[in-house]
Structure formats: C-alpha cells, structure tokens
Design brief:
The structure is a homodimer. By secondary structure, chain A is of the alpha/beta class. The first copy, chain A, is 41% helix and 17% strand. In chain A, α10 links the parallel β8 and β9.
Chain lengths: 339, 339
C-alpha cells in the first residue's frame, strides 16, 4: 500500500490511519471495510470505523483486495480496431455498462489485428488475473483463436471459431437480411435488387439467405439476376447502380450503409429520386452516414452495444449460450426516409 | 495468489512450483523473476529458474508485483464518448501505443458525459493506484475539472481548464484553419468562403482566426460577408450552399467534413462540379466521409492519435508542457480530389 501520486496531492490514507482515528485495530478496520462475513465486530466499533473512513477520505486499495480474495474484478477486452469505426467503441460501451453493473472493470487493449500485440495484450490480462477475456473483432467473421485465450474463461464477440469450444456472440445476419427485405416488401415493392458484398463473410451469406427467405415468404420469385456483387463501400455501390437501374428494380437492399451512400450518388447522377423512383435500404446503421444522407437512410442496425453487453453476461455465467452454436443477437430495423 | 480460471484451464503455476522444479528457494525465484538488482544469484541457479519458468509456463502476478513495488503500471483514460465517432478510439489507440512503449497498461472508462459515472470511473482508477489519469473529450472544448482528478497526476486531452493547473494537450485550431485556407489559396483561389459552425468553441474561433491570417498573409482582403454560420453537420452545409454560390466564391472551406458532405449535396443539386466550379476543403479527416465522397474530400486532419500519445508522454514526464498554456498539436493537410 503506498501512494502513486506526487507531492502536490493529498497523501494517501492508509488502513492504519483509519484504525488510529477509530481507536480500533487494523484487523478490525479490514473486517469492516471488506465486509467480511463471520467477523464479530460490535456496532459501536463498526460505526467508528465508518466515521473515520468518511472523515479521512479513505479508499480501500482495490489491488490489495484482489490479492487477498484471489480473484480480480477485471474483465479483459481485446479489440482489433478501435480507431477505424465507432463499432468497437460501441462493443466496449455495452461491455463496460454490463461489467460495471456487476462490479467489474474493463481492461481494454487495441491490437490492430497484430498477432504479437495480441499475445502481449492477452499475457498482460492474464498477469492481472482477469476474470475472463472478451475477444472481439470489428466485423463479424470466423477467427483462429489465439492459444492463450484458453488460459482463462473467454468469450468471442462479433466473431466465432466453431471447433474452439469457446462461446460466441454474433449478429443474426439472416434475420437482418430478412428484416431489410421485409421493409421493402411492406412498402409495396416486388422487384427488389440486392447489392451484396464480394467479400466472403457471414454477412455475405447470411444477408443473402435472409433476402431470399423474405421474398419466398411473400410469394415473390427469387431472381438471382437481381443480386449484384460489389466492393462493400461507397465506390462499389456507385459502380453497381447502372445495373440496378437497368434491372428494373423499384427498390434496392444495400449490403451496408457505405454501399447505399454510393448508390445515392449513382441514382442522383441519373436524376432518379429516393424513394419515389427507387427505394433504398442499408445495413449497419453507421450514424454519420445513415442519419445524414439526403434523404436520411432507412437501414438495419448492427447491435454492437448488445454484443458487448451479452458477451459479459455469457462470461459471468448470467446468460447460458444455446448448445455449441453462437448466440445470435437481433438486428433491428431503423426507419428513416429512403423507403 | 490463486487462479481465476475454472476447471477447464491449466492450473496456475506458482512461484513455489518453479522453485521446486529448479531446486532453489522461493526467494531465489522471486529475485530472478523480478530481476532485483543487488541479489547475488549464481549463473547456474539463474539458468535453472529460467528453464523451470519456461517449462511450467509460469507467469509473474502483475498485481502482486504492483503491491510489492508500491506503484502500479496502470494509466487511467476517461473518455466521454467512445461509441459515437472513431475520435475517442483514435485517442485511446495513441495513448495505448505510447503507454505500452513504457510498460504501462490503459484502464479505459467511457462516461457518456455523465458526472456520476465519471466520478465512479475516477474513483475506480484511484483504487487501482493508477500512475495518473488522461481525461479526454471527443471534441475540443473548455471543461470544468472533476475534483477527484486532483488526487493523482492528470492530463487533459482534447480539452482544457485554464485555472485548474492541469496540463492540457489540444489540436492547433488556428494553424489548422490557416492550413485549410492556404490549400485553397495555393490552388489559385482568391475569393474563398468559410462555412463556420454556430457552436461556440475553440474550433469556431481558432479556425476563423486561421482563415483570416492566411488571407491576410496572401494579401487578400478579409471579407466577413464570405463567412457563413451553419450547424456543424451535413444539414448545415446543405442549407448554407445557396449563399455560398451567391457570394461568388470559387472555393469554400467547411468547418468540418460533415458540413462539406452537405455542401456536396447542395452543389450537386445545382449542377455545379467539384472542384471545377467550386473547390471544397473540409476539416477532421473523418475517413468514412472524406475518403469516400465523390470526388474524395481534401481536408485537414484532427490529430487524435497524437493527442493520446502526447498526453501519455506529458503524464510520464517525458515531454514538458510549455508554460501554463495547452500543448498544441499540429493539424496536417490531407490532399484528395476536391481542391
């Protein structure tokens, strides 16, 4: 127990100081402060300790407590990209809120997807006796689990590894694709294009499955000529737009909001109005784009906050994952003005 | 010292285990592992300890080490918004890279600007004996310092509090405004509009000062009729565009990339080409917008990564802040296709 501060700060108050002011032993202070069950402390002594703690501004040393109890109140969170999009920030936000609710604190490490940094980060977390580790990626994908993750309880967030034995929490891409398509069907569209990504991923296959399921459920024939591959960004959407127009589609489901941003540019250049001439729906709900395009973009949200929160609940055993399959988190529709 | 893991994991290896395998005392293991100066340990014993550490996969307990040394290797980072933009993520990224370089680990807390959460976060950090705290905001502004920050070494990042006595690290808004304007002047423009924010802030006054300085330095008369107030987002830029066109400006400096995105929409609706009819420069370098508008947006970068890294250097005493004024970090130009 000592001070990390420098001269300018109030000196740290120790348990010994509290004992002196309260007129009791250090052991008594420790029992009261740590709320140990079974310790017989008189009401009067207990009150005097509490008064002294308040008067001196004593803070229990969390590290000492961790050591004496043998478990820490840390949960590690490894993220591969926190500087590129707000997605990792949303996972961290959800994980932190849920962790704090249960008295845990997050140790966050950003790895930039660098294996060496990742190993260092996990080693650091293990050295700090974390209760467990959330291992997260900024987009939903299959991963190879770093071996060190098996040295503690770990949960995969926004990623999965089928044979690892580790629980995983991921977005429900199929339901999300169905929801996006349903939004367009419900607005009266029957000829619906899908600008999908060219990148193999659970989002690519899942959203396509959802698109097909929604059409089939509405009795609309699935026409693969209406599915256009595109690089999953503005440029891809822009380049795909002429084919979408040519296909005679009255509505287009875009793989993500960035693709939709490019489709907006493409439609505008040809003088087509959204949603009057062609309705557009995106995916991700990336606020800086979706909420501010003209017109604002209807989309389906990726539930990053919930992924982080549920990841913590699974780690702490508060939520039991179904079987050996990833826990699926729903992607809700966000209705704006483009449908 | 004990295990936080559950049944499935390899049991934690203790110093006692290492001592047994190496055939030395626990004290000897401790001396070797903690690399204590002055301890006389024979080469042979030292080698046997290292071999046993490697064979058993022993990890020193960082918390025990912290307690025995009396200082922790934590730096706290309080952020008000990590889920909204990538800005806080970039500050965290820079702070982490720099902290790790010096053997420190970040404890990150997101507060959503909620004072109660903030107090809890700072208390948690103090309990963990942090070496100090970086207190950061996601946009540059003046703040009132939470009292608890004075209980340890603290550095303000992307914010400042003149009478607090705390060092601050902020972007150089004046230089940034000058740089943006210079980019337009260097491209041959003389009649340059500035769509500034309506929100009072260091960015509002600093960028305007920089704009005026650059014009004056180029011998261009400053015409306040060319400065247009706008809400600092796409909608504001869109609404200001007719006045910008009417002013006869051949180039426009936008308060941020979101305003530029709205100006793009406004110019396009009127059939004006960028940069042929009007050149546009933004501010922030928010990648998802600036790198993907059509044409891609030239802008000035907010140096969030550097703010975080320099914040850590100031905290650790590796960089000495100039006087009592905030340390200014340069905002570099990012050249794309809109100028």
């Amino acid at each position: 127990m000592s001070t990390t501060g420098q001269g300018a700060h109030a000196p740290n108050v120790t348990m010994r100081d509290v004992a002196k002011v309260a007129g009791v032993s250090v052991a008594t202070v420790s029992h009261v402060v740590n709320d140990k069950p079974g310790a017989r402390i008189g009401e009067d002594a207990r009150r005097r300790v509490h008064d002294a703690v308040a008067a001196l501004g004593y803070r229990p040393n969390a590290l000492a407590k961790t050591l004496s109890q043998g478990t820490s109140r840390f949960i590690g969170l490894v993220a591969d990209q926190i500087a590129t999009t707000p997605f990792a920030g949303q996972i961290i936000h959800g994980a932190q809120d849920e962790a704090w609710k249960h008295g845990f604190v997050l140790l966050v490490a950003n790895t930039d997807g660098n294996a060496e940094v990742e190993n260092d980060a996990i080693a650091m977390m293990l050295e700090h006796q974390v209760r467990g580790i959330l291992y997260s990626t900024w987009f939903h994908r299959e991963i190879t689990v770093p071996a060190a993750l098996h040295q503690t309880d770990s949960v995969l967030v926004d990623c999965f590894a089928p044979d690892s034995g580790l629980p995983a929490v991921v977005p429900d891409e199929v339901q999300g694709g169905r929801t996006a398509t349903d939004e367009l069907i419900d607005a009266g569209h029957r000829r619906i294009a899908f600008v999908n990504t060219t990148t193999p991923s659970p989002a690519q296959t899942g959203r396509l499955t959802g698109y097909r399921e929604a059409l089939a459920a509405a009795g609309i024939e699935v026409d693969d000529a209406l599915v256009f591959p595109a690089s999953p960004e503005q440029e891809g959407g822009y380049l795909a737009t002429p084919q979408v127009i040519e296909s005679g589609a009255t509505a287009v489901f875009c793989h993500n909001d960035r693709v939709a941003m490019g489709v907006y540019d493409g439609l505008r250049e040809r003088g087509l109005r959204i949603p009057e001439d062609i309705a557009v729906i995106g995916f991700d709900n990336q606020d800086v784009i979706a909420a501010h395009l003209r017109p604002t973009l209807s989309t389906v949200a990726l539930p990053h906050y919930e992924l982080g929160a549920i990841g913590v609940r699974v780690l702490l055993g508060l939520e039991t994952p179904a079987d050996a399959t990833p826990t699926l988190v729903a992607c809700p529709p966000i209705r704006r003005r483009s449908v």
